[in-house]
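hey m, so remember when u said the tokens were messed up on ur end? i reran from scratch. heres the input so u can diff it against urs
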Amino acid sequence: MNCSFNEAQQLAQTYRDQSSALQTERSEVIICPSFDALASCAGIVANSPIKIGAQTVSCYDLGAHTGQVSAQSLSEIGCTHTIIGHSERRQECHETNEEIAQKVRQLITHNITPIICIGETENEYKAGVGAAVLERQLEPLLPILQEKPGLQPIIAYEPIYAIGTGIVPEPEYLIKMLTAIKENLKINLPDLKYTLIYGGSVAESTIPSLRSIEEIQGFLIGSASLDFQKFQKIVSLWYTR
């Protein structure tokens, strides 16, 4: 909720007009405005390499659920992706792992790719239980991810204490946690194809250490995406590795 309606449209237009600077022939760029701007931004980036996503979705299909937005509506306005389980939704809206799993089911029913956020808190990190937390967050998702053959979800590892703080975990720790995710999915869903990305204080200054981690296939970027020049620099640095 960083951009107003008009600001979101202006930013979407910049992304569309400058898409060639983002090396879109090599990368997939998805912008996720707030709900009020989704339809207009989807129209702006239509017929361009830029894709559109939502920031969440209802776990219900239709009905008397005031203030919520259905996966069907997101599909109809052109959303190809939707973020699910972001830490701010988990914390501020008290979303549970089970509710998040149901949201994923709604998305895949309407052929929308889920961007599934998982991650531990600072206290969980300090207690050394981060991997166990990720396992609990993934558990209710496993049977649902089996329901859609060919589904290629995006899994976003976001350690909560790193979001917007400028703190990025040490590479050794990131490798450990990303490997735990990969091993979990390999054991439980050996045929699942997915993209594993990282989120949490992704910026020009943090890319040099992050780009050395082979397990990272992309990023979920917050405040740096609001400044196109900063975002473009991140993309440029990523592809110089």
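this time it looks ok to me. The mean pLDDT is 95. if urs says something different then somethings off w ur setup not the seq
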